[in-house]
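G., before I forget:
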Amino acid sequence: SKEKEEVIVMGFVPMRDGDKLIESVEPLAQLLSEEIGIPVKAFTATNYVGVVEGLGSGAVDFGFIPPFAYVLANSENNAQVILTALNRDGEPHYRSQFLVRKNSGINRFEDIKGKRVAFVDPSSTSGYLFPAAHLKGLGFDLERDINYIYAGGHDKGLQLLLNGDVDVATTSVDIRVRFKNEFPTALEETEVLGYTDYIPNISVTVRGDMKEELVEKIKRGLLNIAKHPEGGELLKNLFNIYGFIEAKDSDYDVIRETARLMNIDLRNSK
Amino acid sequence: MMNWYKRHIVKGKIQSLLTGTIIVILLIYSGYMVKWDFVKIYQGIPSMYNLIQRMFYPNFAYINEVMTKLLETLEIAFIASILGVFLAIPMGLLTAANTTPTKIFPVLLNPLFSLLRTIPNLIWAALLVSLFSIGIFPGIIALTITAFLVSLKLFREHIEGIEENSLNSLKAVGANSWQILGEGILPIIKEHLLAVFFIVLEINIRSATVLGLVGAGGIGQILWRDLNHLRYDNIATLLLILFITIGFIDLLSLVVRNYSKKIHINFNNLGRYIFFTRLARFSIPFLVLLSVIYIYSKIDLTFARFILGLEQGQTMILRMTRLDWSYLPQTLKGIKESLFITLFATIVGGINTLFLSYLAADNVSPSRGLAITTKFIINILRTFPPIITAVIFFRGVGPGPLAGAMALSLYTTGVLTKLYSEVVENTHGNIKDSILVVGGNNLHCYRHGIIPQTLPNYLSLLLYRLESNIRTSSILGVIGAGGIGSLLTQNITWRNWEKVGLLLLSMALLVMIIDRISYLIRKIFV
Amino acid sequence: MIKLEDVTVIYNNKTIGIKDINLEIKKGEFVGIIGSSGGGKSTLLKTVNLLVKPVKGKVYINGKEITDLDIASLRKVRREMGFVFQDYNLVERASVLNNVLMGRLGYLSSFQSFFNLYKDSDYTLALQALEEVGLEDKIFVRADRLSGGQKQRVAIAKALCQQPKIILADEPVSNLDFKTGEIIMNYFKKINEKQKITIVINLHDVNLALKYCHRIIALSKGQLLFDKKTGEVDDELVQKAYS
Amino acid sequence: MIKLEDVTVIYNNKTIGIKDINLEIKKGEFVGIIGSSGGGKSTLLKTVNLLVKPVKGKVYINGKEITDLDIASLRKVRREMGFVFQDYNLVERASVLNNVLMGRLGYLSSFQSFFNLYKDSDYTLALQALEEVGLEDKIFVRADRLSGGQKQRVAIAKALCQQPKIILADEPVSNLDFKTGEIIMNYFKKINEKQKITIVINLHDVNLALKYCHRIIALSKGQLLFDKKTGEVDDELVQKAYS
Ligand SMILES: Nc1ncnc2c1ncn2[C@@H]1O[C@H](COP(=O)(O)OP(=O)(O)OP(=O)(O)O)[C@@H](O)[C@H]1O
Ligand SMILES: Nc1ncnc2c1ncn2[C@@H]1O[C@H](COP(=O)(O)OP(=O)(O)OP(=O)(O)O)[C@@H](O)[C@H]1O
Ligand SMILES: [Mg+2]
Ligand SMILES: [Mg+2]
């Protein structure tokens, strides 16, 4: 839509299953704007919908958005992924886990049949989409073979499991460590039954009609900041990001496939 | 004219001018703080329209799923509304300044309930899930709490608005508080009671997102899911059905209220009269009893599990009382962000309400057609969840508080007009008559009779909206304008109860300070 | 000036208010309406300015039928008729002054009234009216803080403030002591004589009616019992009116 | 029976209601209170059952001070005093019958009253009271559908239904024609004589007061002007009361 903006708008959406609460995006905007020589205006949203819509209308130029949001933004508005964030272990992906209580008699996935399972909520990628797809892949009919509910949060899933309200909880890795103060017995009382497929980490996505030149600038800028000692520290401390790697659209095909498996109808504009 | 008289007239004019100026200044200042910008809004229209356009094609195939969820929600919402409203009646009596048995109750309980009202659904959900696990039962409890708090607020204000004389006539025969309630207040607020019930029912259906948080699913959950999948065709279907439902509830409310106004007719002997009045009285506890039985049947919990939940809830609350003062800077920043959005939305909504209520209220509207049209528009405004309007505006005007302020203004306009126009409709015909006879038109009746008479109700509704807007602002986090609300949401998700405690406390303080200020303003000007 | 033709009012399709009333009142008359409680006096008065709509019959003011008038024209008719309600009907939360000023609303445009832009002359009229009823010292008090008789006098002042051609007063002195009541009645008499203002007044106190009115109309169960010059009304007739 | 000691009532810290009133009324007396509009008559009456609280002074009923009584005891005192309000103060949306039955509330438990469990005897009393005031045909009508005088009679019936030891009536016949008014006053006289019910009544109509009351109390600007046997009240005194 609009050409040559004098300000770049950057949106940040923290992942609900990430490890950290995002405090302030200002320092990152500051650094980036020094790096690329264009003022950067930043904001944090609690959910990706606004950012994805903003990418579509041109109100937002690029954003740090979760993988599922990228797939949506891409199919709706032809937004393009440029980078994927790296986590603590230097990997560009994460996964979720199936937790059960120790001595619950559930040792294999087949044992889940007929049991009560807590997903997180129907719009959560790591808390519902991937775990449910995983079960489906193993031949489960979700409606008939298990008795599932939505807990409303990764933490609540764990809590329900500990309280004996459900037999299996699907949560991000590893929720028990993150909430070890709140649920100190979690590590002893529960064990991991298995993991889902890998899910790509948070993506850096630019709007579809951005000039190649500017896209390149932003990409370079972010990569430079991550290498920069000060910038790297900032990314780590504020956003829990340990670097970036360049990304291509096909890295996110796993999301598309999973969505398809779960009958989530993503409009396909390609 | 005599001097003292002239002075007073001038003083009166200066006072109204001053009030007007203060409101305008507040509006302009908060408009400035939310970065109001006509050009930007105008330029954003194509983008906004583009999104609205995507809602032009509802996915009718989706109706089936929506209906199932809607019925599920309705069932829960209905029971919860009955309970909430019923509990609110005696509590309203205890806490209203003019009916309380001792002055201690209002002093102690009203701040407590204000505090409870500021507590967001997420916290209730966290508590309820701890206490009762997950499912329909905690779902009903969650909605009952909402229903109770909202209707309590509305009742209390209404009871306090009842003229002292009608209560005096009961006091004079030696009636106690409960009798004053039953014989003096209930008949007066009967229509209002029904109106409140339907309002609460509607709020419950719409705010049924809470249900998702306590695992009871419902329509809120699929709305949220569809929004997350950007399925605007599905959202359109949902909104359409919601709109029809709300319209239907409105109609039902109207019919029931009109019926209850006429119910006095046609008694020809004392026995029948006694029978029917007793039947009417007995039907209330009977209905409540039925609800309780229904709820009881939904409990799926062992006692040991409940005790466990009690402990968890206790730790949670205990941790909240250990305020994390290091979080104060962020808190203040959040407050600043929310405050202006909220203030702006409330003032804009408040002004709109005064005009729209005139058009919408049956008894003063210039024409019946206009009244129906206005009500229709109002219902559309109310049906659109602020979160969706916020996203629409965000597309147009980008990040910053503006989109949120616009979305919240529209919603406030809708809700407030609905509430106030009902107050207007319930005023006694006398007031209108007193102005009709001097050759006044409906606008005169409204402006000089009904507004002065219902000003206290209007102001308290306005304050009520201000309070809930501070809470509602949390959902604006979706577009990055959440302020203190989204801080709260995030910290609850992260179970940072110490921070949550501080945030809650500051929100409650904020509400109380605003309340206090407006009380003082009221004292000076009204 | 006022003419009722075959007017019947029925409340809620059930209770008869007045029935088949034929009546003509000329300009400058001072007419008293008497009759026992529930007889239809208030209903009759309210029918004259169409606050209650007759189910049958026609109402004429100044020779013009007003029964089916559109609202705007009806307003013009009404603003020339001062009406004093039996239960005062004040806006209790507004000040005495504002209540009296309402009498001027019929002459204000919507815009003026919205911003409370009464003219200076309106204020003067209001003050005069309040002085007339002896309430100038309560002018800024809220109406719900008045005694019964004070409220009643505010209601009268409001009607006077209209500078009406016709005054319809429904038991305007019922809550006033005889002295204050007399002041009011004398004032009515004065404006009736000096300014030829037509006055129709409901009175439960027959002696007052006999003392001030030119003509007495008695209603019983909604029907016209008699309609006579005051001189022709004797004790027997009065007894009949209340039987 | 009723004793006021040095009672002063001030509204909103500003307007004097009554000032330094000393008064004693014995059982079985029939006392009329007169005085010009705004003189404090209603205030005085409301002070007797403490609907308005004095800023100074003490109120005794049956020798017991009630000024600082707790609510429960005050209720017991009040239920033995019938009060007729000047503006009737009916619950307009309730039926006539319900309004009258309210007079029995003081004798019902909360539970009973919630379920409308009036006793059969209560219904009989209500019906009797309505017959006494001539309103038995309006029994199921909503109170806001009554004429002015009918409302007033409902208010009286309600007080009668209490079977009170004391009746405090504030202009109870102001909206009644003389015939109906006489019926009511005669009834008051009857129960005063037969049942020794103490009656304190505000009347703006001096003639009525002189006709029915044993004793006349005049108030002026909140102060006691005179307090005399009816026989001792002459024209001069009356004139003084309204000056
Ligand atoms: N609720 C109130 N608040 C403030 N002032 C009041 C209130 N009620 C009465 N007053 C004032 O107190 C004074 C005495 O009033 P009260 O009602 O006792 O008079 P009254 O003798 O009954 O008059 P009337 O014959 O007109 O009924 C009046 O000046 C009146 O304006
Ligand atoms: N709003 C109403 N709805 C229904 N019935 C009414 C209404 N107003 C009056 N009535 C009835 O109409 C009849 C005539 O009433 P109206 O008020 O005209 O009597 P009135 O002569 O003024 O009596 P009063 O001297 O007691 O004021 C009465 O039987 C009354 O009950
Ligand atoms: Mg009448
Ligand atoms: Mg009085």
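Residues 25-54+323-525 of chain B form a domain with the MetI-like fold fold (CATH 1.10.3720.10). The longest helix of chain B spans residues 63-95.

More on Monday.
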